[in-house]
Amino acid sequence: MKVKVCLGGAVVALLISVGVLAPIISPYDPNQQDLLAALQAPDYFAGKFFLGTDHVGRDILSRIIYGARISLIIASTVVLVSGIVGVGFGAISGYFGGRTDFAIQKTVEVVWAFPPLLLAIAILAFLGQGLGILIIALVAQRWIPYCRVARGQTLSLRARDFVTAARSLGASHGRIVGRHILPNLLQAAIVIGTFAMASAIISEASLSFLGLGVPPEIPTWGSMLADGREHISTSWWLALFPGLCIFMTVLGINLLGDGLRDILDPRLKRASSGVT
Amino acid sequence: MRVSASARMASRMAACAVLAAGVTVGATASAETRLTLGITSNLSTVNPYGDSASHLYGLWGEIYGNLCRYSFDKGGYVGHLAEKWETTDENTWIFHLKKGMKFHNGTEVTAKDVVHSFFRMSEDPESSQKQNSARKIKSVEAVDKHTVKMISHKPTSSLLSYICGLWAITSKDAYDKYGAKEADKNHPYGAGPYKLKEFVIGNRMVLEKAEGNPFLRPGSPDIVIVRKMTESEQRVTALLNGEVQIAQFIPPHLLSRIEKSKNARLVPTSSVEIMFLAMNPAMKPWDNQKVRQAVCHAINREGIVKALLKGQAQLLQGPIGPGQYAYNPDHKPIYDYNPEKAKKLLAEAGYGDGVDVDLYTPVARYVNDKQITQAMVPMLNAVGIRTKLHTPEWVTQWANVRKGKVPFFYQGRGSVIDPGPALSQYFETGVSPRIKFSSAEYDKLMQAERAAFDEKKRIATLRQAMSVLTEQAPACFMWTHTLQYGVANNVDYQPRPDGRPYMSEATMK
Predict the structure, then answer these.
(1) Which of A105, B245, B256, B356 has the highest count of CB atoms within 10 angstroms of its CB?
(2) Which positions in chain A touch B241 (Cβ < 8 Å)?
(3) Which whole-number Å values give the CA distances from A47 to A24, A62, A95, B33, in the listed order?
């Protein structure tokens, strides 16, 4: 369990460090072109371009470093916004019940019916390309898992003694939800968030690969992979390095999520200690 | 269950018969020659008048036949379904059809089919050729069974450029009997060397040899499959695997893969497709000539040709280059790569602090299109034209260009043998909405070139019009490509500079 958390945590820490320090550690501007140095192979020891250059002579390493930043921004924003929206609606739905619950849950069922990537493609096709629009497209369905889990937990929490006590002391609905219910939903939200982060990175890469993600001037691993596809038989480094980055990041985040779930889920804890 | 000896014998004989039949069928199948062509453009519609794209004109020509075509060997227009033509005055053209030409259903091609084809091109609600191919012609009438009279609105010396290799001659009988949609889809009787066997929009077109057709050559493939393959890696891999026999437009970075192959080779052709960056003056800041000229000075075309096209292109100093009709070798280049001049022009235009623009490029429609425009972005940014690149799918991009909705875009115009029709289509006032450029001086010169039946006068007027166009810069003319085709070693094929895929000209070894 600890190994998973450590490994995953190390990858996430590396991703955050690289993303935050991108302007300092990146050897070149990621969009700086040198047409005469196009498609140079990686030179790991003495070369000007450690991981080689792309078809217009941009440094692959610099683009990967800045790509980490974009992946991090997109993934963390998507997780944060989805979490706030999903947990918020879930708590309201579970706490108030009745017509409110019915309306929210029907909305959830309708949105849930769309395949996530297809919905994102439709939103991007309709609203156009852009970082903000991409985040909206990815959030469009990712708030639902939070909502469903939060609703289920709220349904059980609202019947608990501490909620009844708060209500009998005259606490408002807002105070009960905000002070007594939401803090109890956070553990589950964190576990969902780690998995959602990995999924958001893959979705962003998929959409960028399809040319529907962020505009071409913003370096992302998905768009680098798409550019590399045209050169895969002659200049392998264009596709390999961004592909490896996606793979390692998603693996790391999943390991972290897995480890966190093991730690935070009391049922698993009880099962592992033999308590039933 | 017991089986008698005679029954066993009978079953063995039956099995032998089935086997023999199978061998015969196999032998027939193996004798059939099949050629697959990988193309980069879309197969958008089964209506032969429904799109205006170079490759489709060629494919429809192979099915339906044309009145005439351009011969690069002879350096002029030659008859296809028409035997000859003449003008009786500056507005009247008489075409004499070849006798005995048959549609695939056995009926003869007559003058009424030509009249009908003009009717469809100009009146079909789905026609996208009326603006280009049909608009110069006022009327078409059948004089007799094999004679067609065309009357132009105004004297048009370049009329053949609007007709030859463009008009598909479709059957009036099929149209009358089935209606346009049904005739195009299920009864596409033509007089060309191939019958349309299958058409899957956006995917493939299957053609079958029309036995006995006079346009076939010995060795023309029995079956031709045209497949849309936009990814260049996909086309090259398919060629090397033997999945396709001809792969269009191999980009420079993949040439070595074919050069190393024992099964295929590269066949180059100097394309007459002109590549340009179009700027729509109906939208800001492109209404300002100085901004347009600044773009032309901002782009390092030599650098792009050297680095991204590996020298596989010829720079244009005006709309056309060497080998194209009315090219002026004495024309002096006016747009050198000069970022300082570009900045100065931008400041003079009132954009000293720079200007934000959106540049659109198709992806994988032209050789290295996305890569080329990606390289242009920092060049434009460097002079203060802050450029945001958009990379829509070709289908979307092309639809928007045709509606005049795209402000700034990378584009090619194929089949520019005689530049008159192409330059009229894109730049003359009101002809097509693609660029919405309007210049009284240019329009007057274009009208004058069409009216000039004296060749020297026409060439001089065309050159003057092209100078005006270059100066006023509704587009920066970039280059013409040396297009490389990958061709399997068991196929003889010389691609045409105009990009028409006449597959009957390919022969199987």
Answers:
(1) B245
(2) none
(3) 20, 14, 62, 52
